[in-house]
Amino acid sequence: MTLNSEIASRIRDYRPRLPHQRWTPVADQVRATVAAAPATCYEARRLLYAVGRLAMWADSGGLPRDPGVWLRTETSDAFVLSGCPGLDGSTVQTCRTWLRRTRESLVWVKRGEAPPVRISSLRRPQPP
Fold this sequence. Notes:
The chain is mainly alpha-helical. It has six helices and no strands. The radius of gyration is 15 Å and the shape is globular. The model has no long low-confidence stretch (mean pLDDT 81).
């Protein structure tokens, strides 16, 4: 797979606004994960943000430095349920969506996992 030069440089040059010592241990794997997920419709920068936050959260919790572990449904759900440190409101759900789409684009089914159930609802609740 070949990335266009703009996306490749965006991935290579990405640096989150978080302490360097938290980013460095997971940086290469985050970049590789995002580079391998071109099938998503989201920009590389958004995926770097979401996967990077998840990776740093997982690393600080003692989980292995493995994108296969980070992107498991239960790991990303735990991240979202923990409040996605540093995120708020609808940004949390948006981050969850980016993580889900990244996972789906990487075809984790090969690891014996079923694709997550896609659930949707109306944005405005309907009266009873």
